[in-house]
Structure formats: structure tokens, C-alpha cells
Amino acid sequence: MKLKLLIPLGAFLLLAVFLFIGLGLNPREVPSPLIDKPAPPFKLAKLDQPAESLSRDDMKGKVWLLNVWASWCVACRQEHPLLVELSKQKVVPIIGLDYKDQRPDAINWLAKFGDPYDLSVSDMDGRVGIDYGVYGVPETFVIDKNGMIRFKQIGPVTPEVLRERILPLVKELQK
Amino acid sequence: MRRILFTCALAASLHGAALGQAASPPPAQAAPAAGRQAAPLAEDPALEERVMRLAEELRCLVCQNQTIADSHAGLAEDLKQQIREQLRAGRSDAQVLDYMVERYGDFVLYRPPVKTTTMLLWAGPFVLLAVGAITFAVVLRRRRPHAVPFDEAEHRRAQALLAEETPEIRT
Amino acid sequence: MIGEVGHFALIIALMIALVQGVLPLVGAQRNITTWMNLAQPAAQGQALFVVIAYVCLTVAFVQNDFSLLVVAQQSNTSLPLAYRIAGVWGGHEGSMLLWMLMLCGWSVAVSAFSRRLPQEFVARVLGVMGLVSVGFLAFLLFTSNPFERLLPAAAEGRDLNPLLQDPGMVIHPPMLYMGYVGFSVAFAFALAALLSGRLDASWSRWSRPWTIAAWSFLTAGIAIGSWWAYYELGWGGWWFWDPVENASFLPWLIGTALIHSLAATEKRGVFRSWTVLLAISAFALSLLGTFLVRSGVLTSVHAFATDPKRGIFILGFLVIVIGGSLLLFALRAPKVGLGGAFSAISRESMLLANNVLFAVACASVLLGTMYPLILDALQLGKISVGPPYFERVFVPLMAPAVFLMGIGPLARWRGSQVPELAKSLRWALLASVLGAAVSLLSGGSLLGSLGILLAVWVVATTLALLAEKTRNVSGSFVQRVSSLPRRVTRAEAGMLLAHFGVGVFIFGVTMVKTWEAQNDVRMEPGDVATLGGYAFRFDSAAEFNGPNYIGLRANVVLSKDGKELAVMQPEKRMYKAQGMPMTEAAIRTRLGGDVYVSLGEMVSETAWAVRLQIKPFVDWIWGGAALMALGGLLAATDRRYRLARREERAAIAGRVPAGSA
Asked: Of A146, B135, C176, C336, which has the maximum CB count within 10 A?
């Protein structure tokens, strides 16, 4: 049997291996190119006190979570109790980025479902969201003391992700 | 002669008909018979064309199966607005695309970038074509008909057959 | 009750399929006649029960039986009847049952139309098809049961996806599946040939009509899908190089190589291994397409709801069937170098070049489609491969193939003299260059002019071939033309029609891409916009109630040179059950092109965003494809495939030895 006749079989098996690996991957997930890069700067009005603002540099020196949320976002309600719980433990400051929302709606939503945020800022037109590569709400970033993004969670934070990825990382960065 | 005329007519007529139907240059501003002239949707149609051309190169991340040119999703509209502002500010096409890639990664480009990881992708078809061409050449060489020379006896018989008035029918 | 009957019928079908898949193959191997003779009845029996199951599911849909999960997911009481029937294949489970129905259809056809073939061979062919049936029936019963119950039954269904509530939806999947499944016949023939060691010219002659028929259906299916996307999706595009579109295109490309390779194998006994490999690959790619759409591995607008269990099953099936076939190929493929010799310029060499080009094109599209997955699997990042890549890669590969398509049919088997060929082709070449020149002079792009060159070349070479056929006929032009039917066989006529269709197709694509125009305007009642010599006046917009949607219809008056031509009515619809908004474009179709109007969003209280488009010759794209499919069907029904049966009958009737008629 000539060896070259085995080439089609070999090529096919190689393809099958990739397809098999592919079954475990999520083709819709877009990894962030901002990991291990500086968090994009922003200066946004606070949700509670619109006259005041918060900028990225205000958070330098601390490890913090940036959670992108909105009152119109249904999936956010899934992760919200988890965040409220987390905020009670006072492990890490959580800053909310209220994305493309209306102020009254946002304030009502927090009043209704709880406010885990040290504070929230309003990204009315979504510009800051674009800078952070936000494409679906909710999304959560872990940012270190030097203002570098270390982790991005796409979609609601689950107990597993919180327990296995976010909290250990926060602990590590806080040392 | 007939054939020349026919083929010329064929080529030309196809084209004539085509041009009769084809679009004229950019949307005319001439006043039509009746009614108010509709304003173009975009403020600056020329800029908008550039925006759309760039938008067609970018994937909408929300629906993921459309370009941001075709998508009506919120993020798509926001990104188109970004492109518009950047082009207006004088940035080049390449700079706008870089801006998008910085934030969303290579996934957002429908035309895969040329880098080491995509070398196989861009070079692949050429390599395959080269392999195909070599295979083609090899097969041709192997299949080339060899003229088998007749020996003396066969030569004489062939001549005899050709000389006969009525060919023999073999039974 | 209906659900249980259907479910039971599928189980029986599986058992019969097991018989069909195992016994005839063993029987052929061991020469057990009774087992070999089981092949046809088993195929027919299996078909009967699959038909019963399919009818049960259809009845459940028509009667709005929401206690069946798939009916609750895909249907709705206010869904019109036609779409309730078509909704059977709207979801994954039902579409797999449609696949099975098609597979049974082809199996029965093979069992009915192969009486003149040796039983041993037919047993093997049906046996292989039986094994494929086993795989699909098992897949249905174990992972995708269409008769799964929803208890308690839903009060109302979720409705068929509005995008699918359309006549195109009714035809596209069945056509496509006819093609995909039809390649299983070519596959079965190839495996039967490998198993029996009988790879002579007769194998290819028997296989040809089936393969061409499958190819024709696939051509039609892909074309209808493209046309449907064009008028349904609302923005005038017709091909997006979307992974699932590519998945249907890959078997088509290999199928095209296959039907051409079969011609060479039949006529001259060359390329035998290559043809067998192509036959296996065509079906492999059909299966791969099925996998890609249903496994969630690639992101696509076409993808069905995904489930990893299904993905694993299909992948396993793929590995067993294709891996097994390719292994068999490696072990049993005929020694290369069989068949006659041929020179560098000959029909064989043209067909070989065609094979190479189509195979490379297919491999390139496969590479582009799979590449994001490959990189992601190797953790090298995530990229997208879209139309810019495919167009850059595909067109340069196809252009030479199209050029050769003009020369091939004129070249002789074994060898052609270049001067002779050149003489036959010079007018075609002249016409093509002229066409390209006219295009350039009219402002067409370089690429567009190349397209015109190729389109004219194809048409002109087709005519040149017809001229060649009637060269020895004396008399006037009319006499020569009327002698054609006698001098051209159906197979040749089919080929010419199909090739002509390619020319029409290329012309349509080139003209649309070069000359299409678009105008996005904001319109209030009374506004007029212009595009391409036409004037569009926005008259009014009003809401109305559809059967299962609330619609908004605008009236746009189309006129040219002051004369009113039509009232175009683009719509926006909100389908009540799923709350999904849809845009229905208004299209005015003429031979010379389409005028396309679609409604965007309301930009103010009274004004709408309206997109106007002119698409010159766009319907020639699908017209060309239709001609290709028709040509294929014509070729598949050529007399000589039926000749043997007539000879048989004559032999029995008059005791005349076969072949001396």
C-alpha cells in the first residue's frame, strides 16, 4: 500500500481532532485584547452626585472591580445578588459602570435590587464602554493597583467564576 | 464573416443593454417632476461612503453574523458613529481599523490580519495550488503517449492494408 | 398517539436499516444470494416506516398538537397551513427526519432503477446506504427525537422563526438535502466498487446519472438559499461566505470536480482512484456540513440550537464513516496509472486541470472556514475570516477554471492539436476581448471587465462547440441549426446548457458587483428621491394586520422619465408570538435588474429612513444557477443510461443477441 494513499485519511483525522476540540470552545466569546494592558482612562459623572466625577486614576493604588451594568439588562439581575453578597464581605471595592442608561431608571433599579457598588458612574453614550471593548452587558473587569486590567468576565459572574478566578486573582494582586 | 458579426454583436449588445440599466453616477441633486427632494440620510454622503466601506470590514459583535454596516444593533450604530467622527477628524482607514482592533481584538476584522499566526491562512491557497500544479505536471509526464515504433513485419502489413482497394473485414 | 406511532415507526425503521446495512454486505462478501437479495426489500421497507414517521410528524404540526415538543417550539395556531407543513423541518429534529426521508427516497430509487446491475454490486451499494441510515436513525432516536413529548402540553406554540415564514423556506432545505443525501449514492457506489474490487469503466457509468442528479439538486438548493437571503434579509446581499453557506458550497465544489472526473473515468478509464476519492469526499463534506450547522462549533446565522451531545454523536459518526472509507481507500485503491495515455493538450488533461483547480478551491474555502476554529483550539487567539479573504482567494482560482471550461469540450480525447483548437476558438476569444474592452471603456473596473471577458468567453465557446458539431452539415444556417438535435446527445446538451448557465451566472455577478447603486435617504410623505434614472416618491405609510403579525406598509411610487411604473410596498412586520421585527423589502424584478426598496427606522415623527438600491442583472445569478441545475438533470437522463435495459428487453423479446441492434 502506497503511503501517499494514507494522506486523505491523515488529513481527515487531523480535521476531526480540531472539530473535537472545537466542541469544547465557545465561538461567540470574544477575548479581550486589553488583558495585561493599562485600563483605558475615563472621567465620568457619579450616578448619585452628577456634579462630581470619578476618574480611572482615582482608583490607583487599589485593586478593584469594574462591573458594567444597566437597568435594561436582564442578565445583570442574574449576577446582581452575587455582587451584593460580595460587597458585604468588603473584600474588594466594586465600581459600577452604568452603560447607556437613564439616571432615574438606574437609581430605581439599584434601590430595588440592591447596590453593591462603592459608587457607580454614568456612561450615557457608551463611549467608555467602547474603550473597554464592552460588547454585551454585563461584563466585569479586575484591575490592579497600577491600573492594569488583569481579567475580564463576559456575561454574568457565576459563583464558580467568582470562587475560582476572580477572588484568588484579587487576593494575589492585593499582596 | 457571419461569425465575426455575430460574436461582436453578442458582446456589444450584452453591454449596451447592461449600461442602459446600470446606475448613473452618485445620487443626482436634480429636481424631479413633482414633490420635495428627499434629503440623504447622512449629513455628508461622501464621508458616509467611506464610513460604510470601513463598516463592511468589521464584524458586529452583538449579532456576530453581520457587518456593522448591515447591523442595526446599538453597539453597531455607536461604532459607526465612532468611525464617522474619526474619519471627519482626519484619521486614515488603517488608523480607524487599528482603533477597533485595540479594543475588540482581531476578531472584529473580517479581513484577517497578516501576522505569523495567519501565515498559513494567507499562504495556504498558494501552497495548495503549487501542490496541485506539481501533481498535474507529474501526471501529465507519466501519461504522455509513447509512440511505439512498428517493426518490419507490422510495417509491411500496414502498407499492404493501405494498398488494398477494399479493406478486409476481420471475422 | 400520533407521536407514539411515529416514534415506533422510527424504531422499526432502524431495525430494518440494520438488516439492510449488514446482511447484504456480508452476503456479497460471502456470496450468499438470499442475503444479497434482501437489499432491495429492506430499503423499501425502511422507506415505508420512515414515511409513516414523517407523515405522523406532519399531521401533528398541521393539527397543532402542542404536546409534541418540536411542534410547540416551531409552530403556532395562527401560523398559515403551508408554514405549518414546512415547519416540520424548521427545527433540528424535524430537519433530521427530512434528511432520513430523502435518504430513503434515494435508496428506493436506487433499488428500483438498478435492475440491470449485478445483484452483488447493488447489494453492496444498498448495504452502505443502509449503514448510513443506521447512523442517522440512531442519531434521531438517541439524541434528537422529533416525537419527544412536552408534558403538560403547551397552550400555544412559540411560532416558526419569522425569517423562515416564506416560500423560499419551503423549497430551500428539501432541495439542499436532496443534494447532500444524493451524494451518499455516489459514496455508496464508490465504496461498493472498492469492496468488490470492480473499478472498471462500468462502475463510473452506473454512478454518473446519480451523481449528476444529486449535484443538480444541490445547485438548485444553494441558489434558492442565496435568492431567499437576498429578498428576505432586507439589505440586498446574496452571499456572505458565512460558515454554513460555505458548508453547503464545499460539497458542491467537490461534486463539480466529481462529475467531470467521472466523465474521464467512464470514457477513458483514467483517474480512477481520484474519482473514488472525490466521491468519498463529496459525501464527507455533506456530513461535515451537517456537523457544522448543528454542533455549535462555528458561529453562524444559520446554526440550529446546539447541544454538545449531538455534536459528539455526529463527529463520532463522521469519524467512523469517513475514516473507515478513507482507510478502505488506502487499502484497496486501484493501482495508479491505469487507463489510456493522453498528451498535454487533451480533454483528459483539461479535466484533470479542472479537478485540481476545484479541489484547491474547495480546500481553500475549507481552510478559511476552519481557520478561526484552528487558531482558537491552539489557543493562538481569535480571528474572523470573512468575505474579504474568500473573495481574494476564490476568484483567482476559478478564473482559470472558467477559461478551461471553454476549451475542454472542444479538445479531443487523447490529444488535440493546438492550431486546430485555436482555429475553433478564435472568434470566441475575439468576442471575449471585445466584451472586456467595452466594459473598460464604459468605466467598468478591471475585475468587472475580467468578469465580462469570462462570461462572454463561456457563451461564445458554447456556440463554437455547437458550430463544430454542425460543421459537416451542408446547407443553410437554419438547416445546420435544425440538425443539432440529431447530432447532440442529451448528455452533451445538458453539459452545454449547464456551461451556458455558468456564463449567465458570471455575467449576473459581474454586472451587479460593478454597477449596483445605493441611496440612503430620509423620506416624509411627498418626498422624492432619485437613483439610477428612476424617481421614488414616498406617498404614505399605514399599519395593517397580518395573519400572525402586525405590519406597517409604505407606498413608494416608482417612475422613470416622468412615467409611473409601479407602487412599491416595503413593509416592516412585528411577529406577535416571538416579538421579532422583520423588514420585507419591496423588489421590482425585470430581466435587466431589480429595483429594491427597504424601510429602515423612523427617524422622526413623520420621516423614515429608506434604502433604495438598483441591482442590474441580479436575477441572472439565480437564472444561471437554474440553467446549471437543468443542464445537469438533462444530462442525467441521457438515453444511454437506459440503453442497457432496452437491449435487455429486445433480447428477451426477439431472442436477438444483445448489442447487435
From this structure: C176
C3, containing H or E segment: helix C2-30
DSSP state of C87: G
**Model confidence pLDDT, tens digit, residues C527-579:** 899 898 899 999 988 999 988 889 999 999 999 988 999 999 999 888 887 77
Nearest to C360 among B8, B64, B129 (CB): B129
A17-63 tens-digit pLDDT: 999 998 888 877 888 899 999 999 999 999 888 899 999 999 899 99
CB nearest to B104's CB, from A100, A126, A133: A133
Q: C227: number of CA atoms within 13 Å, CB side?
A: 26
Average pLDDT over residues C266-270: 88
CB contact under 8 Å between B103 and A130, yes or no, is yes
Least confident of A21-35, B16-30, C317-331: B16-30
- With CB atoms and an 8 Å threshold, state whether C330 touches A25: no
CB-count burial class (<10 Å; 0-12, 13-18, 19+) for B42: middle
Return the bridge partners of A149, or none. A143
For C372, the closest chain B residue by CA position comes to: B107
Tell whether B61 lies on the interface with A, counting CB pairs under 8 A: yes
> Which residue of A130, A131, A136 is in closest CB contact with B62?
A136
Of C87, C42, C60, which is closest to residue C2 (Cα–Cα)? C60
pLDDT of residue C17: 96
Residue C90 lies in a domain: yes
Interface test with A, best of B58, B65, B104 (most A CBs within 10 A): B104
Name the average pLDDT for chain C: 89
Q: Do C330 and A5 touch (CB under 8 A)?
A: yes
Q: Which of C364, C394, C359, C368 is nearest to C280 (CA)?
A: C359
Nearest to B121 among C353, C371, C427 (CB): C371
Q: pLDDT (tens digit, 9 = 90+) per residue, C138-188?
A: 999 998 899 988 888 888 888 777 777 888 878 899 999 999 999 999 999
Interface chains of chain B (3 or more CB pairs under 8 Å): A, C
Tell me what pLDDT residue B10 has.
61
Q: Do B105 and A133 touch (CB under 8 A)?
A: yes
> What is the C-alpha separation between B31 and B15, in angstroms, rounded?
29
Q: pTM for the complete prediction? A: 0.89
Superfamily classification of domain A36-174 = Glutaredoxin (3.40.30.10)
Instruction: With CB atoms and an 8 Å threshold, state whether B112 touches C562.
Output: no
Domain residues for B132? 114-144
| Half-sphere exposure of residue B128: CA atoms within 13 angstroms, side-chain side | 23
Total count of domains within chain C: 4
Q: Given this model, what pLDDT does residue C201 score? A: 74
In the prediction, which pLDDT does A15 show? 94
| Contacts for C103 with CB less than 8 Å, ≥ 6 apart | C129, C132, C133, C136, C181, C184
How many Å lie between the alpha carbon of C235 and the closest alpha carbon of chain B?
A: 7
Q: Is residue C55 part of a domain?
A: yes
Question: C143 in contact with A at a CB cutoff of 8 Å?
Answer: no
Which chain B residues touch C458 with a CB distance below 8 Å? none
C150-172 in b/e form (b: 16+ CB < 10 A) is beeeeeebebbbbebbbebbbbb
**Any chain A CB within 8 A of the CB of B65?**
no
Domain that residue C463 falls in? 427-515+620-633
From residue C457, give the alpha-carbon distance in Å to each of B57, C121, C399, C507, C516: 33, 42, 11, 11, 23
**Residue C246 backbone phi and psi in degrees, to 5:** -60, -35
Final residue of a structural domain among C343, C370, C385? C343
Residues C62 and C38 in one domain: yes
- Report the domain count for chain B: 2
The answer to whether the CB atoms of C377 and A22 lie below 8 A apart is yes
Q: Does the pLDDT of residue B32 top 70, yes or no?
A: no
Residue C98: band (very low, low, confident or very high) from pLDDT cuts 50, 70, 90:
very high
